């Protein structure tokens, strides 16, 4: 009886239980024992013969993994909307389906993007540190000042699900103008009056630049030395997409030399960011540990959707969120 059940491998022990419980009803679930990404060697050894892999963005899914799993592998379910860790071409070549988690994390990620933007522009970590360590001497007119959103021009790089959700929130702060850069014109931009512009125009005009585009070959290190130099000296750069969209050394140089005003990063290269990174030493940079979608409810829903994707693929049914 049990030999007829599907075999699923889960790459860490702390995936939200609600999704794992759904899988367990119909499948034999083998899970890496720790609440940390499975080491590569262990991963390759453990997936031989499985029908499905439930993974996260920490797990690189490439030719070697697909070979190690074997030709019976039917589906990869990633608990993320980003898919830059998966070799799509190789999966497609072998007929391995990919499930991901679009939409369900859009609001949580947009909220975090706004939180990071305001934390950076209003210097919250620096201000709190100062208050705790005696730097708060009296109210002072120029103390801890930073750029405001009221009347500002905000540039969105990537205007998909998350970009639009951020733009709606940005609009409610009485911004003057919202610009966006993406390959196609978005009808949804009409809702907030966002204007499509070239990348260079967006850099030149924006007081805040927010990155919401996926990491694909065309966006890799889109933000390089020349891009930061085109931005306003007063500009705030916010990235909640993927660290690979920027040349991190160029950002460090821009922050150290006041070429831009500040940066808020939820994503870095590599992750986790080493403790000796210059980014941690810069007062004009806020670094968060990739927590864009980290609301309790969102993570539970993401886990359920990942499981639902896997189960549908295993039953040759339509997947709720297949990456095509
Ligand atoms: P989406 O709906 O697919 O939106 C992506 C946007 O980027 C679209 O506007 C797309 O428009 C644009 N784009 C794609 N390729 C581009 C290119 N070569 N040049 C310029 N623009 C390009 O995706 P989403 O759901 O909003 O998610 C966006 C990304 O956010 C994900 O890929 C993921 O990496 C990241 N993310 C991070 C977190 C976190 O925890 N920090 C959480 C969720 C998502 P066109 O196709 O018209 O160019």
From TrEMBL:
Give the top-rank taxon of the lineage listed in the UniProt record for this protein: Eukaryota
The record ties this protein, via Pfam families, to:
2-Hacid_dh, 2-Hacid_dh_C
Domain D-isomer specific 2-hydroxyacid dehydrogenase catalytic: where?
14-321
Where does the D-isomer specific 2-hydroxyacid dehydrogenase NAD-binding domain start and stop, copy by copy? 114-292
Molecular function GO labels: glyoxylate reductase (NADPH) activity; hydroxypyruvate reductase (NADH) activity; NAD binding
Q: Which InterPro entries match?
A: D-isomer_2-hydroxyacid_DH, D-isomer_2_OHA_DH_cat_dom, D-isomer_DH_CS, D-isomer_DH_NAD-bd, NAD(P)-bd_dom_sf
> Keywords in UniProt for this one?
Oxidoreductase
One GO CC term on file: cytosol
Q: Which PROSITE patterns does the UniProt entry name for this protein?
A: D_2_HYDROXYACID_DH_3
Family as reported in the entry's similarity comment:
Belongs to the D-isomer specific 2-hydroxyacid dehydrogenase family.
Question: Which named protein is this?
Answer: Glyoxylate reductase/hydroxypyruvate reductase
């Amino acid at each position: 009886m049990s030999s007829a059940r599907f075999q699923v491998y889960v790459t860490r022990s702390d995936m939200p239980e609600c999704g794992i419980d759904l899988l367990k009803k119909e499948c034999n679930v083998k899970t890496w024992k720790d609440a940390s990404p499975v080491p590569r060697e262990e991963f390759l050894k453990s997936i031989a013969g499985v029908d499905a892999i439930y993974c996260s963005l920490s797990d690189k899914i490439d030719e070697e993994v697909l070979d190690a799993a074997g030709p019976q592998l039917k589906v990869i379910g990633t608990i993320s909307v980003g898919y830059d860790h998966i070799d799509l071409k190789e999966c497609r070549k072998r007929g391995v389906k990919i499930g991901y988690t679009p939409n369900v994390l859009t609001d949580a990620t947009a909220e975090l993007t706004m939180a990071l933007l305001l934390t950076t522009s209003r210097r919250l970590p620096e201000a709190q540190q100062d208050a705790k360590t005696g730097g708060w001497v009296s109210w002072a007119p120029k103390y801890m000042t930073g750029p405001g959103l009221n009347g500002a021009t905000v540039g969105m790089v990537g205007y998909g699900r998350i970009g639009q959700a951020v733009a709606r929130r940005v609009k409610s702060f009485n911004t003057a103008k919202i610009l966006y850069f993406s390959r196609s014109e978005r009808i949804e931009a009409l809702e907030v009056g966002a204007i499509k512009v070239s990348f260079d125009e967006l850099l030149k005009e924006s007081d805040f630049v927010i990155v919401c585009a996926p990491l694909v070959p065309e966006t890799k290190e889109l933000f390089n030395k020349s891009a930061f130099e085109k931005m306003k000296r007063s500009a705030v750069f916010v990235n909640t997409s993927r660290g690979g969209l920027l040349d991190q050394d160029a950002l460090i140089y821009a922050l150290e030399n006041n070429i831009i005003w500040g940066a808020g990063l939820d994503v870095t290269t590599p992750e986790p960011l080493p403790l000796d990174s210059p980014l941690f030493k810069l007062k004009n940079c806020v670094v968060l540990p990739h927590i864009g979608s980290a609301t309790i409810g969102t993570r539970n829903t993401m886990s359920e959707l990942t499981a639902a994707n896997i189960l549908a693929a295993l039953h040759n049914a339509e997947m709720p969120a297949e990456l095509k």
